Structure formats: structure tokens, C-alpha cells
Amino acid sequence: MPTDIGSQLAHSLFLITMDSTPMPLRLATRDDILAILALERTPMASEFVGQWSEERHHATLAGGDARYYVSESEGGEVQAYAILRGINEDSRGIELKRIVVAVPERGLGRRMLQELMRIAFGELGAHRLFLDVYEDNARARHLYESLGFQYEGVMREAAQRDGRWCNLRLMSILESEYK
Q1: Quick check: 123 and 154 in contact, CB under 8 A?
Q2: What pLDDT, on a 0 to 100 scale, did the predictor assign at position 21?
Q3: Which CATH architecture has domain 5-178?
Q4: CB 131 within 8 A of CB 116
Q5: pTM value?
Q6: What is the mean pLDDT of each run of 10 residues along the chain (179 residues)?
Q7: d(C-alpha 84, C-alpha 129), whole Å
């Protein structure tokens, strides 16, 4: 949370402008990995999200160049997670590697992405936030576009799903576009 009054006011206005409901996120810990794996393997997520092993998640979390964030329900259950990578890059380009919500179409993904954008640009000093998304994931592409992400191009046959190669769309938003 910003420490000076001006920053606090700007942060509050951002949250009100983008969505009236703040999105509390916390940094994930090793203890969250099993819940993250469970979210990743839901039928909807497994169609559009890469399936990492528990070991890969642990290594990425511990690696120092990525941050995992989770959103919890009022009961303390992990209901969504995201991974930002490249936080130590000299280029100040941060990748939104993954965002997964347990129950889509309730606005959680939008609110979480808004908060991740605030973190990337406001706290981590990103110049560029980028991601790739399956070409046939229209719901996610629409969300990213609605928040200002621009289409940059196609990464041809960049991922495998169900034994076949799929195209990914590369999208990004710049710090100047975010402000």
C-alpha cells in the first residue's frame, strides 16, 4: 500500500475508477502450491493453461525472478492465482505468465488483472507488461483488450494442447498506456 497521502489517494481513485471493489492479493507461499495445482487442473483452466508440475512451481516460486499472487475467498481458500515473471529484467518488461480463476465470469479475473497491472507498473516499475494467450481463447483476449492490452502478433505453433500445436497471440500494455 502506498505510504504518502497523495499516493494513497491516487491508489484509491484507481481502484474506484477501474472497479469499485478492491482486489486483495497476497504473495503466494510454498504452502499454496497444492491449491495452485488444483486450480490449474480444473477442466476450463486445463484447456487454456499450461500444466506445470509441482516441482516446476516450487522452483519458479523460489527462483527469485517471479512472483506468485493469490486471491482468497472469505473462508481462506485460494480462488485464483497469477504469476508475474521477469521482475528483475533490465528491460523492465514483466510477463504475466499465468492467471487462473476457479469460477470464471464473475469478474474476479478482471479485478485481479487490474490489481496485477497496478503492481507491475506501480510497485515493480514495469515499462511493459506482456502475455501470450491461446488464439482460440476469446474470453481472455476480450478481457485483455478491454483493459488496454494491444495485439502484437502471432507466435505460430508455440504451444501444444491435446497433442496438437496451437498458435498464441502476443499482447502487451506499456506504462504510458496504463497511465
Answers
A1: no
A2: 56
A3: 3-Layer(aba) Sandwich (3.40)
A4: no
A5: 0.84
A6: 40 41 85 95 86 94 95 93 96 96 87 96 97 94 97 96 94 96
A7: 9
Instruction: Give every CB contact of residue 141 below 8 A, 6+ residues apart in sequence.
Output: 133, 169, 171
Listed as own residue / partner, the contacts of 5-9 with beta carbons closer than 8 Å and 24 or more positions apart are none
Enclosing H/E stretch for 100: strand 93-101
The three three-digit cell numbers of residue 123, written as one number: 510497485
Amino acid at 155: M
> How far apart, in whole angstroms, are the C-alpha atoms of residue 172 and residue 177?
10
The pLDDT score that the predictor gives to residue 5 is: 40
Count the residues in the chain.
179
The C-alpha cell at 46 is 486445463
Residue type, 150: Q
